[in-house]
Design a protein that fits this description.
The complex is a heterodimer of chains A (about 475) and B (about 375). Chain A is mainly alpha-helical and about 475 residues long. Chain A contains 19 helices and no strands. In chain A, helix 3 crosses helix 4 and helix 3 crosses helix 6. The longest helix of chain A has about 40 residues. With about 375 residues, chain B is α/β, with parallel strands linked by helices. Chain B has a domain of about 240 residues: SGNH hydrolase (Rossmann fold), CATH 3.40.50.1110. Chain B is globular and about 75 Å long. Classes of the chains: A mainly alpha (about 475), B alpha/beta (about 375). Chains A and B meet through helix 1, helix 8, helix 9, helix 12 and helix 17 of A and helix 1, helix 7 and helix 8 of B.
């Protein structure tokens, strides 16, 4: 079930109504668990089994780790959890990719291997809940967190529907304690939650799907012709807006939904297009993933504790795998690799010019350069293959042969106004939170903006198109 | 609330990115201090007024409640119904618009399952029906020759991944959607906010085919995908002219090589044989197109090379518009490609009677309504 669907509206109204009943806390939690399974099963019922497998295996692994003081036993249970979770992820998400690459490698050395055709349906959100459950066993193994006191709280942590299929990727320590005490929603919480839902859906339905997506598709999915430099840049900039509005829209909606039920979820975005440098960008973009990769991959790989060379290797390795997490395609690996390269160069420059303190104008210039270079990486993220990516980069560099215009004037203007609005907002808000900005805004203006967004969502209707991050 | 946290500037709160390698605490979500009740009240009133405004505007431009829009999920629903159908229809927009399901039912007692999709090769849909082992009825394949023999699936390529549209969520969603669309006219995908905003572009940028060149709303869709021409196309002369212009006379040349045509015939024969092998039958219908389009269609793919050979190779019954009686010829095609609502009924009446004469799979009821002619839909002055 996706947030921008009428099915979800009906589902959420029912959940909200039942949640307001003053039932015993255990009963309310059971209701929330069942509702979360329904939320997931509404997409493809059999895949709930995967969710159960992941939940049960990690619960037992964590329990076993707690009971044993032997390091080897603890490590084996941790590895069992990692193997089961990553095994499921590898089979469902990377099975075809691995097979295709094996066939290609075999062909390159003259072996004509033709495997049986099989089609694997990717369970929605598997990358997200796999990481969430892994963080549970890893935190228990690393003794950062105590295991959940009861299975219900733990199962709810994994399954809690606002974060289940596309994050924010929550850690057990962030959510499990919230199930310990009864939660009741106050009126301001409920109404502010609804405001966040409206904002998130406006970003997704109106901006990402309505105005930005078509511009991106016109160029990136063009059947013929090479785009002019202007069109290539506009499409790529539009995609930078689309991917932000799509994913930040999801996160904002998820946070709003959780708030309506009385739960707090962490920020997943912090105005990333106002980043000054790439390490700053990754502290602002998909925060719960980047911090997960840092804590469970980069640091275990050595982090910055074993010299410069090892640090660069850890950085690059983390970002390459981070790229692969997004999708089973080499274009995603290239996207991650490019970010790894950016981060490495930035680290080297920071070391080389350690005493340099840039002035405000220079900071803005670095911010602008960061944004442009981020857009280069989006080309690999959006292009369906390297041919399209190469064509786009060639056009963006003004080197295309016989380029043609592809985007009509008004759609182009709309897209650029929206992207400029997004970037401008990020700069205006880079040292603020949404909440503090809202608190400082007159009530009449909040009411007017909220109303316009709500009317725009209704007028746009939406076709219930899936969020881009669902495929990850 | 909203105090400075750690070393961050005032107003920022810590996130996981600020706490490397440690257990993340329970997040804190601040609720901005605002009169939320009053704000919500204002939003509710504004939203209600906004919906009233949208609905009033929709009805002003000719949209109707009960127009259910088309969707992949709606098609998949009909595909499931076709499992046990006595008669099903596949094809492109012409058979979709030009078949009046009510008339068909009145004549034969059977209501066909409508599975035609606009902008889609009938061959793709014929092959899909052939792949449905449960279907053993009569399949009516309506086709525009050029679209049938093109090597692309067209808009309805989604039929090959129909599993994507069978989720419980999707099925429930379309039911809710239809409940709303039966009551509200503005819920029309052709008149969404972004679509309307994009269509304000009258080709400002030279050399770029923008939204003006798209096919705008042409049809209305009723229950079970019963589709007919949107009345505005018929009655609004400017809108009708725009629609005609958007077809561009079907002048776009496509290389229909003998090999391509032969491949189309072979694919069609294989699909027809497959349906017959399990007890089903296939007939072909070629709905009319206006002379302004027909001349270009014929130039690209002559009837003798496409249609005639198709019937020979498949040994199937076919009803071409040219074969119909003179009194049901020269029906009204407001935008040249599809019949208006009234003439669709006449055409349906004509081709069903013709089929009944040619195949035992179609039988007229004893109390079938009387035959219709052009006079039933074309004003005497036209």
């Amino acid at each position: 079930m996706i947030f921008n669907s009428l099915t979800f509206v009906a589902f959420f109204l029912i959940v909200l109504a039942v949640w307001q009943l003053r039932l015993p806390w255990f009963g309310r939690k059971m209701f929330l668990l069942v509702a979360s399974y329904i939320f997931y099963a509404a997409w493809n019922p059999p895949f709930v089994i995967l969710l159960w497998v992941s939940t049960v295996v990690d619960w037992w692994a964590a329990q076993a780790m707690v009971k044993s003081e032997r390091p080897l036993t603890r490590k084996l249970w941790m590895l069992a959890s990692v193997v089961v979770n990553l095994g499921m992820l590898a089979f469902f998400k990377y099975g075809q990719f691995l097979l295709d690459n094996f066939v290609a490698i075999a062909a390159s050395i003259g072996i004509d291997y033709q495997p049986a055709q099989y089609s694997i349906v990717l369970p929605v959100g598997i990358s997200f809940y796999t990481f969430a459950t892994l963080s549970y066993t890893l935190d228990v193994y690393l003794r950062r967190a105590k295991p959940a006191k009861n299975f219900l709280d733990y199962a709810l942590f994994v399954t809690f529907f606002p974060h289940l299929v596309a994050g924010p990727i929550m850690r057990p320590t962030e959510l499990v304690p919230q199930f310990a005490e009864p939660k009741y929603t106050t009126r301001p919480m409920l109404l502010f939650g609804l405001a966040l839902i409206t904002l998130g859906l406006f970003q997704k339905v109106v901006l990402a799907d309505g105005f930005l997506g078509p511009v991106v598709e016109t160029v990136y999915d063009a059947r013929a012709g090479v785009p002019m430099m202007l069109d290539a840049w506009v499409a790529t900039l539009a995609f930078s807006g689309q991917i932000f509005c799509d994913f930040a829209g999801y996160s904002t909606t998820a946070i709003g939904v959780a708030l309506c039920l009385g739960f707090a979820m962490p920020d997943n975005f912090r105005f990333p297009y106002a980043a000054i440098g790439f390490s700053d960008f990754w502290r602002r973009w998909h925060i719960t993933l980047s911090s997960w990769l840092r804590d469970y991959l980069y640091i275990p790989l050595g982090g910055n504790r074993h010299g410069e060379a090892r640090t660069y290797m850890a950085l690059l390795g983390t970002m390459l795998l981070g790229g692969l997490w997004h999708g089973a395609a080499w274009t995603f690996v290239a996207w991650g690799g490019l970010h790894g390269l950016y981060l490495s160069v930035e680290r080297w420059l920071k070391g080389r010019f350690a005493g340099y303190r840039p002035e405000r104008a220079m900071l803005v210039a670095i911010g602008a350069l960061t944004f442009v270079l981020i857009n280069i990486t989006w080309v690999f993220f959006r292009a369906k293959d390297f041919t399209v990516a190469a064509t786009m980069l060639q056009s963006m560099a003004g080197l295309a042969v016989k380029p043609v215009g592809m985007i009509a004037a008004l759609p182009m203007i709309y897209a650029m106004v929206i992207v400029a609005g997004i970037v401008g907002t990020h700069w205006a808000m880079r040292d603020k939170t949404l909440e503090i900005a809202i608190e400082r805004t007159p009530a009449w203006l909040i009411a007017a903006v909220w109303s316009l967004m709500a009317i725009a969502i209704v007028a746009e209707q939406g076709k219930g198109s899936a969020f881009i991050y669902f495929q990850f | 609330m909203l105090k400075q946290e750690g070393a961050l500037p005032a107003g920022l709160r810590l996130t996981a990115s600020d706490r490397p390698g440690e257990a993340q605490p329970v997040p804190v979500r601040d609720i901005p201090s605002q009169p939320w009740g009053r704000i919500m009240g204002f939003v509710a009133v504004a939203l209600a007024l906004g919906i009233v405004g949208l609905e009033a505007n929709a009805r002003r431009i000719g949209l109707h409640a009960g127009d259910l829009d088309n969707s992949e999920v709606a098609w998949v629903k009909e595909r499931v119904r076709s499992d046990s159908a006595e008669v099903a229809i596949v094809g492109d927009s012409r058979i979709l618009f030009d078949t009046d399901l009510d008339r068909f039912e009145a004549l034969t007692g059977t209501r066909p399952v409508q599975m035609a999709i606009h902008g889609t090769s009938a061959l793709t849909l014929l092959e899909d029906a052939a792949s449905n082992e449960n279907f053993r009825g009569l399949l009516i394949v309506g086709l525009a020759d050029t679209m049938f023999f093109q090597p692309f699936d067209g808009y309805g390529e989604y039929v090959k991944r129909r599993g994507d549209f069978t989720s419980p969520s999707g099925r429930l969603g379309i039911e809710i959607d239809h409940i709303l669309q039966r009551r509200l006219a503005f819920l029309d995908s052709n008149h969404r906010l972004s679509v309307a905003a994009h269509r304000l572009d009258p080709d400002f940028r030279a050399g770029v085919e923008g939204p003006k060149h798209d096919i705008w709303k042409v049809s209305e869709v009723g229950e079970n995908r019963a589709t007919s021409m949107w009345p505005r196309v018929e009655h609004d002369l400017a809108y009708r002219a725009r629609t005609r212009w958007a077809w561009k006379g079907f002048k776009e040349k496509f290389p229909f090589t003998p090999q391509l045509i032969a491949k189309g015939h072979a694919r069609a024969k294989a699909a027809v044989d497959k349906i017959r092998a399990r007890g089903g039958e296939v007939v072909f219908i070629r709905p009319p197109s206006a002379p302004e389009l027909r001349v270009n269609e014929e130039a690209q793919l002559p009837k003798a090379k496409g249609w005639d050979v198709l019937l020979t190779k498949t040994r199937a019954v076919g009803v071409h518009n040219d074969d119909l009686l003179p009194e049901v010829q020269r029906l009204t095609l407001p935008e040249w490609s599809h019949l208006n609502r009234a003439c669709a009924t006449v055409f349906t009446d004509a081709y069903v009677r013709r089929l009944a004469a040619q195949t035992p799979r179609v039988k007229l009821r004893a109390d079938a309504p009387p035959r219709l002619t052009r006079d039933n839909c074309v004003p005497a002055t036209s």
